[in-house]
Amino acid sequence: MTARRERLLGLALIILVAVNLRPAITSVGPVLTEIRHDFGLSGTAAGALTTLPLVFFGVYGLAAVFLRRHPRGETLLVSSMALLVVALGLRLLDAPVALFTGSLVAGIAISVGNVAMPAIIKRDFPGSITTVTALYTVAVTIGAAVSSGIAVPVQDLFDSGWRLPLALWTIPAALAAVAWLPRAWRAAGGPAPAAPPTRAMTARVWRSRLAWHVTVFMGVQSLLAYVVIGWLPTICQDRGLGETPAGYVLALSALSQAVGNLAMPLLARRIGDQRPLVITVVALSLIGFAGIGWAPIGSVWLWAFVLGLGQGIGFGTALAFLGLRAHDAGVAAQLSGMAQGTGYVIAALGPLAIGALHDATHGWTVPILVSMAIAAGLAFPGLAAGRNRTVGAPEPVPVSPALG
Question: In which residue ranges of the chain is CATH 1.20.1250.20 found?
Fold first, then answer.
């Protein structure tokens, strides 16, 4: 196989995994009412069902720091997709325990894929990290949008319950696991993987200010995204929009993220570092939140598009940081684990905090103002992470002065 075909195949395999990294979560929302009815779940329990995977999105990233031997990336992706099939199957059983266990396992499976992918992109596409990352994020976004959009139509088409729309996603997950198996076998029979990073190198990454700037940027932009996923339809409904149009507003926001994902590498090529991208993300987020909160409700479609565009650029930039700010693939894996492990814990708090503010103030003014303040604060870690530097670069060797 030629090098070009090998690269195209590698890119296709990356996209195949990417489309599986969100449907386990986003396909639940449209059928949540029926799930609640079948199992008699309270509102709190139903909220936990959608939040639980998010809490575990970063669990592998945190655990990987303590592993004595790091598995190959190909092995991780096969394991991730196989575990995801198991998780999706568990949720189909007629028991609340299986439903929640499946959601937890799905979060763990996705966390493995989240961490493994940036290191593989850094290793296999070192000269086109931003472009490949953009295609990867587009695939993630499309997977999320399609899974939420087809759940109810599939249910209506086959006159089925909620299990069929959720069960469909075992098929692409299984295909991804099988598709990556040959590469995993070849990698297992090839040279041994690079030695795991020393404790000194691990400590160096975790003590790096740049690594923490990347981590906070990852966490905060994800927090804002989950606030939108969790509360945008409710905000629209409370402002007078119908239930169905409010769902379409969220879908439009999700699809416009794909536009932002694609725009990110085009913008990145014209600039020396990523700081202008960060400013763009902050500006679009502020405009979008303000429009959704206070502009005439008939114009909410425009503001949802603007907000999604900014979040798409933000997500692509955050993932690109994991490769661009790492000195090599080994550091990229560590930085990915740190940023996503810690970042998704930060992100999971967003919907809960905004919901608590709404309950306390009985309105959306304060929650939206807080969301805008958080969006503005994203500039501080983003501008620091956007400078063209790397984590884990060898220390310069001091040069002894020439003897006279």
Answer: 1-196, 199-390
Q: DSSP states of 346-389 as a string? A: HHHHHHHHHHHHHHHHTSSHHHHHHHHHHHHHTHHHHHHHHSS-
Distance CA 196, CA 334 (A): 10
CA atoms within 13 A of residue 109's CA, in its CB half-sphere: 29
List of residues 6+ apart from 64 with CB closer than 8 A: 70, 115, 333, 334, 337, 341
User: Which tokens is 383 given?
Assistant: 């501008």
Q: What is the pLDDT of residues 249-270, one digit of tens each?
A: 887 888 888 888 888 777 776 6
β-partners of residue 391 are: 326
Q: Which residues pair with 326 in a beta bridge?
A: 391
DSSP assignment of 213-263: HHHHHHHHHHHHHHHHHHHHHHHHHHTT--HHHHHHHHHHHHHHHHHHHHH
CB atoms within 10 A of CB 85: 21
CATH superfamily of 1-196: MFS general substrate transporter like domains (1.20.1250.20)
For the domain covering 199-390, report its CATH number: 1.20.1250.20
CA proximity to 166, closest of 93, 97, 95, 101: 93
pTM score, whole prediction: 0.75
pLDDT under 50: residue ranges of the chain: 397, 399-400, 402-404
In the numeric block, which tokens belong to residue 327?
């000195």
- Collapsed DSSP state (helix, strand, coil) of residue 391: strand
Q: Burial code of 343-372, b = ≥16 C-beta within 10 A, e = fewer?
A: bbbbbbebbebbbebbeeeeebeebbebbb
Lookup result for tokens 């604060």: 377
pLDDT at 106: 93
Residue 65: per-residue pLDDT: 64
CB 238 within 8 A of CB 277: no
Contacts with 270 (C-beta within 8 Å, 6 or more apart), sequence order:
none
Nearest to 35 by CA among 155, 168, 171, 173: 155
Are the C-beta atoms of 118 and 336 separated by less than 8 Å? yes
Q: State both tokens at 146.
A: 């399609």
